[in-house]
Protein 1
Amino acid sequence: MIVPGDLFEIGLIVPDIETSIEQFHKAFGYTFAVVVDGVLPTRDADGDTVPPMRIAVSREVSPQIELLEAVPGTHLVAPAGTGLHHLGYYVDDLQAASDALAALGIPFARGGFHEDVFPASWVYHEMADGTVIELVDRQSAPARAMLTVGQIPDSPMIEGATPLDDGWRPASH
């Protein structure tokens, strides 16, 4: 069962991740340790894609802010009229939780894959109003926690990272 206490993140699509990090820091005090560059292997009804991704997750949690840089032409775009991309929930059994949402009329939209494993790590379901619900295998929590302190987990999805000085400014500035 998915419960309110399992909400761990609010994912926002942003046009420029560095600008958004600065704004979230200056306006609300959020800090970020790293900008991650990588890919997001995705499977949906139309087949497999591997779009590029740039993300940053806040050090602050309950819930955490995840900024995703928009990638036009992929699913990494904001639903019409909003920057809200998804509400992310940790679950203990990814397939069972996904099946439960589908049974409630919140259909599966896409999910991660790795080699022959599907779904792997995460799935998206879309509510009738367009809100995306992300279910993430709770076993991913330790890797996610590494990002909050600027450590980079070993993952085939991660291709590089940019450290952030002061929690919001790219180290190269």
Note: The two ends are 45 Å apart (CA to CA).
Protein 2
Amino acid sequence: MVKEIKLEDVKCKFRKRDINSNKGDFGKVGILGGSIKYSGAVKLANMSLCTLRSGCGLVRVIVPKEIVSSVTPYLLEQTLYPYESLEDIKDAIKDLVSLAIGMGWDYDSKHLSILEYVLENFRGNLILDADALNTLGGHLELLRKSNAKIVLTPHLKEFSRLTGLSILEIEQNKVNIAKNFAKNNHVILVLKGHTTIVSDGEDVYLCTCGSPGMATSGSGDVLSGILTGMLGYLDYNPLSVSAGVLLNGLAGEIATDKNTDISMIASDTIKCIPDAIKKIRS
């Protein structure tokens, strides 16, 4: 099945909540990333903020201890978990429902060992983005052995590195290549672009929401943050992931209307998530 996703297709994912709800009902999620070279303090903070805006109950920002002072000033509703060792990371992720990993990592051999541990031991919903995708290159067998429910969110250049295919080759047969990659590696693939492709290897959803104003630093982090938050309380399947992609694109369109395609920045998309949810609900 190949289907263009519409607002009415995902309305069921944004139901109003019971009056007796508490934060424990909507998932504890984590953002694991950052490094001395690329602390990404604002990006990590923005990403964790959009997990909350997307509806999860609690978000934990897991960063190397040496960058804590640069990240802390940007956090308010989020909780912070510094790590120095793999043991710290084990403790930080053990009670999470959903986890995003890789933002601001850079390439480092120690990050491969972290990624290996997470893929082998984490059993929740796992979003791999940015430098987690670069670290994964050449090690796709880790996906097939994993106990996690994995979502990959590459843009074309990252997908080219993962597959070994040129961007031109991918663009000539994008849907089938994305579908086959997802099936062979047991993941849900989100191949970002003007039309974003979401596939679990069986079904394919196409999302055309979005705007040129989203072609700005940090927009990919916002999408991964939204997916991490929503998979804190939704079932892992391509429709849930597509709902997150559509929410991101629609919020980006609203942000463009308010700020223009020239002036908008990634955090503008986050501010417009509530308006996008209202539009989907209505």
Note: The chain has one domain: 24-281.
Protein 3
Amino acid sequence: MVTLDWIMGQLHERAFGLFLLVLALPCCIPFLYGVPQIVALPLMFVSGQMLLGRSTPWLPRKLGARQVATASLEGLAERAGPWLRRIEAVSRPRLAALTRRPFDQLVGIALVVFSASILVPLPGTNTVPGIAVVILSMGLLQRDGILVILGAVLGTAWIGTLLVAGATLASLIKAWLGL
């Protein structure tokens, strides 16, 4: 048995990437409602810690002391292995400065905004920002600035799309009501 605090201690600053990845995965499932909105709050909490410049994520004492069976970790590693090997095949440390201070704080801002957009309870609004967060988190884990950029571009394009769609809808409603 190991604790979450021990796992975070082994990962150091890469713990942000792991937490973000685990939290964002349910958000990638299209037309899943409720779970992404619930997961978005801890996602914002972890992202906010990056924004504030923490070097590792902080967990409440009870959560950090929570034990995880090593057999469970081995099973997770075995199931995730094929996916991780595919990602590792294209990902490698490059533009690593984007994964460290002060740039990681800018990434934190983007992650907070993307997480907030997951909270929007409209059909399909969680999938694209969830994928953006997954790509960003893999970039943080692998110290791959290219993945960080790709995730940031995808998430920013999504936010822009939401803003344009919202403004268009508001204009149409105003015109329909004759305001």
Note: The mean pLDDT is 82.
Protein 4
Amino acid sequence: MDAQSLEEMSISCRLSTLAEDAEGDTVTLDWILTQLHERAFGLFLLVLALPCCIPFLYGIPQIVALPLMFVSAQILLGRTSPWLPERLGAREVSKASLQSLADRAKPWLERIEALSRPRLQMLTRPPFDRIVGIALVLFSASILVPLPATNTVPGLAVVIVSMGFLQRDGILVLVGSVIGTLWIATLIFAGTTLATLVKGWLAL
């Protein structure tokens, strides 16, 4: 299938095609990146963030969290296409996991695609996308917090933002950014409260 046909394909179908095109039992993140063509930033963020939306899923979120943060930082720095260093790009994902992810995500992505349309497009383009890049770095960093279910909310935030980038929908970018920011604020509040309680107990 040529690059133009891939670009015209819906996002949900593109993910299914990506899984079908995988050769062997596993693929690397570098291989996934090379398949995404001109929509690389938005689609790569989406592929990396989707596993993080699954509650109590361990393993894959930890594999993709650092690459997700690295790619988010590149949006902040104004790169026009994503790149991964050799060590991160060599990380592997099984073809079965990729196919399962595409199947599970398809109905939800189709709903978002049906609701989205180009609006507030300035939020998906320079220089405003760099501000969003700062938020994405923070959301990605919070996925690394070693607590149960901490990957779900920030993963969802990144998925919504990436769909906003792909659909040129600034409303989705705003919604995802608000969800992720509220999550970060919750983590900070919980951490501060816990630290205060521990300090009080130690002072007794």
Note: The mean pLDDT is 84.
